[in-house]
Amino acid sequence: MNTRISKTFEALFALEDIREVLRGALPTGPDADEEAALKEGVARVRAILDDLEAGTGNAQQSKIAGILDVRSREEEYINIQPIQAAGRLTPEARKALIAYGDGYSTCDACRKPFRLDKIQKPPIASFHEDLAKFVNMDVARVVPGARRGFQAVASSLVNKGDPVIVSALSHYTEFLAVEGAGGIVREVPLSPKNLMEPDSAAEKIEEVIKSDGKTPALMMIDHVDYQFANIHDIKGLAKVAHQYDIPFLCNGAYTVGVMPVDGKALGADFVVGSGHKSMASPAPSGVLATTDEWAGKVFRTTAMTGDVTNRKFGIKEVEMLGCTLMGGTLMAMMASFPAVRERTARFEEEVKKSNAFIEGLLEIEGTKVLSEYPRKHTLSKVDTTGSFDKVAQVHKRRGFFLSDELTKRGIAGEFAGATRAWKLNTYGLSWEKINYLTRAFQEIAEKYEIPVNKGYIQN
């Protein structure tokens, strides 16, 4: 690990040790032993900071709690991991984790009616309102990941044996949500360009009505799919769903928090987003938003009464199991939100950077992009079977040679050992990093005598 990065973590951990002394002290102040420990801790931090400033000292590789390695991927590398790029925390989110890491820290000021989305301090209630406005829906809830949003909707709308329309590119968690509710998935086939077409969806619905004897209970389609990262015609698909009175869920796991998403303009009844995938938030986190029409059903409150105690918990929402995100996860999500909201306005710039890198990659002879091209998103699937995989066939490290070469250049996140079809994400990288990334791949190609054709554009 780089010395300065190591010293930064060492200083942070040393400050936490000082914090622990303060936590152990009485409200009246530290005793003599605690004062001595504080002075010793401060002196240690000063020494570490001196090393940090000068770039001196030994890099500490100690483990957290004796078992956990320090995760320094974001500090040491350009990370192009497809599901991590837009989940990279903001500085504010990291500060929130430090301050609110204790289990039920969000509940310090919880008062009646004792529900997460009603808490005023911290401003969790207003955050829920902001989330709904952010995706232009009426009501929103935070959930432990997009998958729990799918689950909440499916368990509310789908009964045993009900067909549910999904994409042939849908995520496995959509399948599980339908299965958990007792439903049956029915997939809309892909177009030759790996897109979901409204006409195909209409044909599938007609087919399902005939084969299953009932209208599908729900349609769930990915705004941007995880396999090719193509942007699908959500507005057209939602229109088709509504022609058959089928509620429509837009899976915005790769769009909410990354690009502008207007749920009502898209015609969605539900919008689901992923905090840890696209909203600069820790895992597990996400958002489920809906319209007033469906809020009462999906966010229904419990009507059950205890047969011995006669207890009632009527304010608690069944699909949310009362409350969802507590502690540091929610606070970090809230802390990132201003930056996330602002960055969606710059999505076109992110797409330009994505295309600049992909163009540079395509200059490497034998390389292809399997996603829509030019790119409309920062997540892309590429095929290097005709380029880097040729080297892998004869290299003693096989496909891992590419990982080795990228690691030497400070690049991480590619699928280790993959040199055929694999995915990457450039979201949030500066132009300097985009240019560095492009040069690095081309330098590796040239090192292994793979031709690089400057100015090549894929047809």
Automatic annotation (TrEMBL):
It is an enzyme of class 2 (transferase). Pyridoxal 5'-phosphate binds at residues 146-147, 251, 274-276. InterPro entries: PyrdxlP-dep_Trfase (IPR015424), PyrdxlP-dep_Trfase_major (IPR015421), PyrdxlP-dep_Trfase_small (IPR015422), Sep_Cys-tRNA_synth_arc (IPR013375), SepSecS/SepCysS (IPR008829). Pfam families: SepSecS. NCBIfam families: PRK09331.1, SepCysS. Belongs to the SepCysS family. This is O-phospho-L-seryl-tRNA:Cys-tRNA synthase. It comes from Methanomicrobium antiquum.
